[in-house]
Structure formats: structure tokens, C-alpha cells
Write a structure and sequence with these properties.
The chain is α/β, with parallel strands linked by helices.
Length: 251
């Protein structure tokens, strides 16, 4: 199903022929922001791949609820290979900017990376805010699988957990580096078996000496993004765009 108009979040989505009442922010957005009227169509997703084409049957005068008829549903497969961003957390609102743009550039999952020089330490309370940002960006770019926030990891733990998968060529690790290039990806990745590509981004102060030694291992490909030292969110967004340009678009 081609989504050619606004996408709204609704979970669960019932079968075709069923009525569904939408409430809260999604109903308000459809009525007030989009000004959708009775008889008009809209698209729904549950964030797990299911998409529905629905028709508006009724709307409340205060725009706090919307009744729709489900006309058609499809289930989109999980993206494969998955593009995973593992980054240190930048300060302030720059984290939200980074996540929103990364979703638009194809990020499928996010891993908070705990580095030796991280200025911001991860806490569980951050996830609620991040999920709202990810959801809004997912709808804006019409993705139907909501990117997940995975457990926080140190660089060492991330590399240790990736060793066997990298050896099997089902996972590729990429880090931005002024001295890097994109050579070697065809030797490290088997596109028929590749399950995910993990993009690694460090903190504002850069990786520590110990972390640089870990990244010098053969497990990690180094991709040149710029001759300059980039901020965390700039590097993350650039790396997502470069991953698509260099790797995913050439599959």
C-alpha cells in the first residue's frame, strides 16, 4: 500500500470493515491541524508494520475523538538490513534533533552509547521523551515500523557482542573518521545475509585512547565524513546519510 497522505498512529488496528475510535493527540491533529472532514480518507499505522487505509465516519465537535472505518490493511515486512545508530548523547535538545533527523534518514533502531568522555549519562527517564520524538518523525516520513530504543551499551560491550555476527558477515560496524574511507565494505558484508549495520558515533570530547584502540580492530570500518571534527549530532546525521549513499543504495 502506497502511503500518499498523512500517517497517524493507532494501535491496535482492527480488521477491514471495523470501526475504530481515535482519541487524544492523533484525533486532535487530524481534525484541527489537518482539518480532515467526514468522508475523507487517512492512513493509520501501529508502528509494527501494519498499515490501514481508513475513512472518517464521524468527528466530535471538540475534535477530541474521531471514528473511522477501516477499509484496507497490509503488513509491511521489517526493514532488512536494519540501520542502527549507536551514539553518545549530545547535550540539551540536540539529542531530539539528532533522533528526529536520523529516523528520516532511515534509522531503524537506536543504542545510547556510554563512552569514557560522555558529557551526558543515559537514564531510563530519557526514553519517554525520545520515543515521542521518534514517533513524530516516523509519521512525518511515513515509516511503518517504529524504531526501537535498545539498552545502553559501552563501546567495549557493543564490540564484544558484535564479534560473532561480524565474523558471520551478518553485521557491519561503521564509525566516522577523518582518515577513513568506504573501502572494505564489500569484503565485510554479505548483502544476502546482512541483518544490520551499526553506525558508531562518539561524544563531544572524542573517543578515549582505550576506545580508539578498540575501534582500530578489524571489526570496524572507518568512513570519512569530513576533514573537520563534527559535533555528535552532526556526525550521526551525516553517517546515516552516508550509509545510505555508500552502502544501502548500492545493494
Amino acid at each position: 500500500m502506497e502511503i500518499d497522505d498523512s500517517l497517524f498512529f493507532q494501535d491496535p488496528i482492527p480488521d477491514p470493515g471495523s470501526l475504530q475510535v481515535m482519541v487524544g493527540p492523533e484525533a486532535l491533529h487530524a481534525c484541527k491541524s489537518r482539518r480532515l472532514a467526514v468522508g475523507e480518507s487517512l492512513y493509520l499505522t501501529d508502528g509494527k508494520g501494519k498499515v490501514a487505509l481508513a475513512r472518517i465516519e464521524d468527528r466530535s465537535p471538540r475534535c477530541d475523538s474521531l471514528t473511522v472505518m477501516i477499509e484496507e490493511t497490509v503488513v509491511n515486512p521489517m526493514p532488512s538490513p536494519r540501520l542502527v545508530l549507536a551514539s553518545a548523547i549530545p547535550k540539551g535538545d540536540r539529542q531530539s534533533v539528532m533522533l528526529g533527523m536520523a529516523v528520516q534518514l532511515g534509522m531503524n533502531d537506536y543504542i545510547p552509547l556510554e563512552c569514557d568522555r560522555s558529557a551526558v549519562q543515559y537514564s531510563d527517564r530519557m526514553s519517554h521523551r525520545w520515543r515521542k520524538v521518534i514517533l513524530e518523525s516516523m509519521k512525518q516520513c511515513r515509516q511503518t515500523h517504529m524504531p526501537a530504543i535498545r539498552n545502553a551499551r559501552t563501546l567495549e560491550h557493543l564490540l564484544d557482542a558484535s564479534g560473532e555476527l561480524v565474523a558471520k558477515r551478518s553485521r557491519v560496524l561503521v564509525v566516522g573518521d577523518p582518515q577513513g574511507d568506504c573501502a572494505g565494505v564489500d569484503d565485510c558484508a554479505d548483502w544476502a545475509r546482512l541483518e544490520e549495520m551499526i553506525l558508531i558515533v562518539g561524544p563531544e570530547g572524542g573517543f578515549s585512547s582505550a576506545e580508539k584502540q578498540l575501534l582500530d580492530s578489524e571489526k570496524v570500518l572507518k568512513l570519512r565524513l569530513s576533514d573537520q571534527i563534527l559535533r555528535t549530532e552532526t556526525a550521526a546525521i551525516s553517517l546515516c546519510a552516508a550509509a545510505y549513499q555508500y552502502f544501502f543504495a548500492k545493494r
